[in-house]
Structure to design on (1005 residues):
């Protein structure tokens, strides 16, 4: 909001003592505004970055068993070597990757579709938007219960409907071949309202004159969207994609709440669930800290380009 | 089309438009069903007796003697404590969180200095850090390094505070700390859009940085406070991982509702869906009501902040 | 009380020099206008006086006292912002009173009294309980002025305060502001890009370009005796005509115009040799237009064709071209009496009177010769 700088004028003025300059610096916006951001920043930095550092330190130890303070001698990367050759880790990472790619892609496409559908002047748009976004207001713990019931083999609604078509019943959650896809479907149900809202905001920022210009040029609606409108939604796509991808990496709650145990349904184990299980089920603290660091690195692979993009766009 | 201009042509165009609009409304309705069915099914199931659940289609409302409130009553008994704990924890956590974040955003937007970009980057990156990367140290921090619950235990004698409520404090502070980045980013985007001249007018009017915050910026960010409150309260109330790590057991007195819910209605003979759905509905009720009342604010928070 | 000294003031933003070594003395009670095209550094200068920007070099003194190290809160200045910056959540009364709360010499009752007094002065007494959003642009403008006046500061700083008003209201506010400043007798530094505002309102004006001060002086001084081509072009509407050419023959030579100099003019360009680049300037209203060769002193006269006539009512703006020019634009713009009928395509005899011409160095743009004022019985006013 202001542009006062920390440095005073460099001209040598007569009769200005250091006290005057010191008082000026003390009164400057820079100093006066510092407490406002420094206190929250300190809390946040200790929690987030202190936590990451501490976690990394633990990952270098061999700490397991009780949650007593670890001894920080014999630091090495043994846990990382172990993790990278652990078939469970490899499998979980593969699941992460499947989740990341398919969940993100489908959510974006589906959300965009919903947004375009609602962007056209339809009646009760607000209400419809509210209904589509409703799942996002629910805890994963709750939605996991809802979908558990949806997928239930005996009397879940999906199998009841398949029964009408003389299909099934299919054990969606119990079958490791399809459980991950069933969960991706449920997560898309929960998240596509979010992508829709992001895209709707993007669509609103495009002047309607562009659409009208396209109409006057005689272009068909679909063509206008493909050629004129969608290319301008890049910023919306990027920010939504980052949120979805990071979620796909860290999603834990939904999977945990499916079973209520540290073991998610078979075939759906991801790094996030594996990490928590290693720590709280088996007390392999150092090992789980190492997995957490790997998870963080994967997240950084998504976040870093995004931050750079934001920085270049000047939108920080 | 233009050179023909007969009635027939015009009518076919109008019809075409109607067909297209009709198509859109069909889609809109289908997706309304898609988004509501899991919830609707859950609520219907919550109102049915076990026998009715097995007998009837899940999404149909309970008929005749299939209707029962027994599941809801039983669920309420089990969930009640968790809901109260969650509210007790989420309300102060949200308020402290958004006040701190608003201050941070103000401090960072008021002045522009070299190196500020670094601070901003750390805030924005903090939004996306997976909590898994900090939970192992976090658990140690609250048990060994800073056992705040023990430090505050004399407070337990105060009226209205049950000893186990103090156990919620670490969770509360954790939510405050990890909620700061996202809310700061939200407030910053709001403050950046505020005219610079308002702050400058305040300075010229002789107001200190603190007075400008209190008398100009705070009153003007009331709508944003609404948005972030709805958004962040929902997030904190719905959160599970921190509760799991810091409280652990669903049977603990201070267990939050998200911790309790996955354990309800589970037995060796399978899930009691009637009970589980009742509990899920009751657990979701506070945020559900908040959402229905303030859907617009929630969406506003989501689209600038992210999930 | 309220004299301002700006001494070698420089402001750099990273590599960009926004204000470059500007020095101005502003007297107590003076109405000084900073004028120039956008990006010329006038607003940055004003903001440094306000304390909203820190100078990179140089000093700002209020009554001889250095204020470089004084935060805006302690400078006892009031500022009117281009967008008014009214606090939208406060009533007009709240807006006026807000700054007054920091003035220690008032009791609360006195503050209220002062607010009402200023509101009456500005004729916004009936708006006191409204919020800024409920006011028209002109009313908001008055509230912004009121907020500045109410604190009775040493200095008023105004950053294009009239630029958001429509033309009619702007003209009205111009007069009103001027009267107000006269009445309050408070030093005022006023920034605008509009030279009409600068000319009509200021005691003295400062013309800036590219961060550099071009000229300081009374409006008519700048109008008649510009120190360089930039000032000559910037001040006056329509702008001064310029003909680029060179020193040669017995005066000025260009593709289209040969203009012999008399001895007075000759002496001011004595330093130039034949072939040195020279620019001749003439104000539109100084050009004389004749229909008939009989009326005219043939020296300094050319035959030209009218390309466009813009009737303004009180005057006509006449665009002229030489007969032989084909695709080039207008060569000169002249102003004739509004009652005189001039047809497009008409051929006129155009006289450029020697006493009214300006000469500028063709390379540096510096003025070498300005018009002779003593021959001008009535200085032209706008």
């Amino acid at each position: 909001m202001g542009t006062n700088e920390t440095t005073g004028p460099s001209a040598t003025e007569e009769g200005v003592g250091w006290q005057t300059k010191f008082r000026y610096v003390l009164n400057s916006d820079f100093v006066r505004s510092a407490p406002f951001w420094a206190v929250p920043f300190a809390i946040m930095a200790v929690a987030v970055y202190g936590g990451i550092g501490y976690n990394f330190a633990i990952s270098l130890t061999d700490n397991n068993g009780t949650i007593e303070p670890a001894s920080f001698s014999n630091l090495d990367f043994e846990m990382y070597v172990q993790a990278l050759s652990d078939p469970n880790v490899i499998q979980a990472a593969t699941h992460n990757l499947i989740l990341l790619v398919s969940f993100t892609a489908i959510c974006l496409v589906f959300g965009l579709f919903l947004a375009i559908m609602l962007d056209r002047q339809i009646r009760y748009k607000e209400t419809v938007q509210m209904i589509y976004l409703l799942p996002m207001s629910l805890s994963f713990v709750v939605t996991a219960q809802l979908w558990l019931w949806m997928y239930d083999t005996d009397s879940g609604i999906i199998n009841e409907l398949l029964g009408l078509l003389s299909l099934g019943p299919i054990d969606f959650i119990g079958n490791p071949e399809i459980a991950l896809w069933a969960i991706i479907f449920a997560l898309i149900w929960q998240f596509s309202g979010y992508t829709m809202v992001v895209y709707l905001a993007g669509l609103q920022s495009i002047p309607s004159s562009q659409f009208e210009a396209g109409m006057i040029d005689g272009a068909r609606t679909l063509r206008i969207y493909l050629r004129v409108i969608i290319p301008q939604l890049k910023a919306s796509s990027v920010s939504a994609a980052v949120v979805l991808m990071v979620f796909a990496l860290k999603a834990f709650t939904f999977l945990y709440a499916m079973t209520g145990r540290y073991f998610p349904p078979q075939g759906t184990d991801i790094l996030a669930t594996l990490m928590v299980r290693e720590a709280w089920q088996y007390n392999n603290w150092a090992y789980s800290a190492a997995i957490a660091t790997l998870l963080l690195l994967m997240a950084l692979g998504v976040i870093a380009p995004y931050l750079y993009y934001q920085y270049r766009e000047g939108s920080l | 089309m233009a050179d023909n201009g007969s009635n027939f042509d015009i009518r076919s165009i109008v019809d075409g438009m109607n067909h297209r609009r009709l198509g859109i409304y069909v889609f809109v309705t289908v997706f309304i069903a898609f988004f509501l069915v899991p919830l609707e099914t859950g609520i219907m199931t919550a109102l049915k007796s076990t026998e009715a659940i097995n007998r009837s289609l899940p999404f149909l409302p309970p008929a005749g003697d299939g209707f029962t409130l027994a599941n809801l009553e039983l669920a309420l008994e089990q969930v009640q404590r968790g809901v109260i704990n969650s509210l007790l924890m989420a309300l102060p956590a949200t308020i402290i969180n958004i006040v701190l974040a608003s201050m941070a955003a103000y401090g960072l937007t008021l002045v522009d200095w070299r190196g500020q970009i670094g601070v901003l980057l750390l805030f924005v990156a903090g939004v996306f850090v997976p909590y898994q990367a900090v939970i192992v140290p976090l658990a140690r921090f609250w048990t060994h390094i800073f056992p705040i619950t023990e430090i505050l235990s004399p407070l337990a004698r105060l009226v209205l505070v049950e000893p186990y409520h103090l156990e919620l404090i670490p969770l509360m502070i954790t939510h405050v700390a990890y909620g700061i980045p996202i809310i700061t980013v939200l407030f910053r985007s709001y403050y950046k859009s505020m005219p610079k001249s308002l702050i400058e007018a305040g300075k010229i009017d002789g107001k200190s940085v603190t007075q400008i915050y209190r008398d100009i910026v705070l009153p003007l960010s009331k709508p944003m406070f609404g948005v972030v409150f709805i958004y962040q309260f929902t997030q904190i109330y719905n959160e599970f991982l921190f509760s799991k790590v810091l409280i652990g057991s669903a049977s603990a007195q201070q267990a939050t509702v998200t911790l309790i819910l996955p354990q309800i209605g589970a037995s060796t003979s399978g899930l009691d869906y009637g009970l589980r759905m009742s509990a899920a509905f009751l657990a979701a009720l506070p945020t559900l009501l908040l959402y229905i009342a303030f859907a617009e604010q929630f969406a506003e928070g989501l689209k600038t902040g992210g999930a | 009380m309220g004299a301002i000294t700006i001494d070698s003031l420089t402001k750099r933003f990273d590599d960009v020099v926004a204000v470059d070594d500007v020095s101005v003395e502003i007297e107590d009670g003076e109405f000084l206008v900073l004028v120039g095209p956008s990006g010329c550094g006038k607003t940055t200068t004003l903001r440094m006086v306000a304390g909203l920007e820190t100078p990179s070099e140089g000093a700002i003194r209020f009554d001889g006292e250095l204020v470089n190290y004084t935060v805006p809160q302690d400078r006892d200045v009031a500022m009117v912002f281009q967008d008014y910056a009214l606090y939208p959540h406060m009533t007009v009364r709240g807006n006026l009173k807000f700054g007054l709360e920091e003035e220690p010499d008032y009791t609360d009752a006195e503050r209220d009294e002062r607010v009402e007094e200023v509101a009456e002065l500005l004729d916004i007494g009936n708006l006191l309980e409204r919020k800024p959003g409920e006011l028209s642009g002109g009313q908001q403008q008055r509230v912004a002025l009121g907020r500045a006046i109410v604190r009775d500061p040493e200095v008023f700083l105004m950053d294009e305060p009239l630029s958001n008003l429509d033309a009619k209201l702007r003209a009205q506010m111009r007069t009103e502001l001027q009267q107000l400043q006269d009445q309050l007798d408070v030093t005022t530094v006023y920034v605008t890009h509009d030279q009409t505002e600068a000319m009509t309102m200021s005691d003295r004006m400062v013309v800036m370009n590219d961060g550099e001060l071009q000229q300081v002086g009374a409006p008519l001084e700048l109008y008649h005796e510009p120190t360089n081509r930039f000032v000559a072009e910037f001040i006056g509407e329509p702008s001064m005509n310029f003909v680029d050419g060179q020193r040669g023959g017995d005066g000025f030579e260009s593709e289209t115009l040969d203009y012999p100099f008399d001895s007075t003019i000759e002496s001011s360009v004595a330093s130039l040799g034949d072939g040195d680049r020279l620019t001749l300037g003439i104000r539109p209203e100084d050009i004389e237009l004749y229909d008939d060769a009989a009326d005219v002193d043939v020296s300094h006269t050319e035959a030209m064709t009218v390309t466009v006539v813009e009737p303004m009512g009180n005057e006509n703006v006449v665009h002229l071209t030489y007969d032989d020019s084909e695709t080039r634009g207008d060569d000169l713009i002249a102003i004739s009496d509004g009652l005189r009928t001039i047809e497009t395509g008409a051929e006129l005899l155009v006289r450029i009177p020697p006493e009214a011409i300006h000469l500028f160095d063709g390379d540096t743009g510096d003025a070498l010769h300005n018009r002779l004022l003593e021959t001008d019985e009535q200085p032209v006013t706008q």
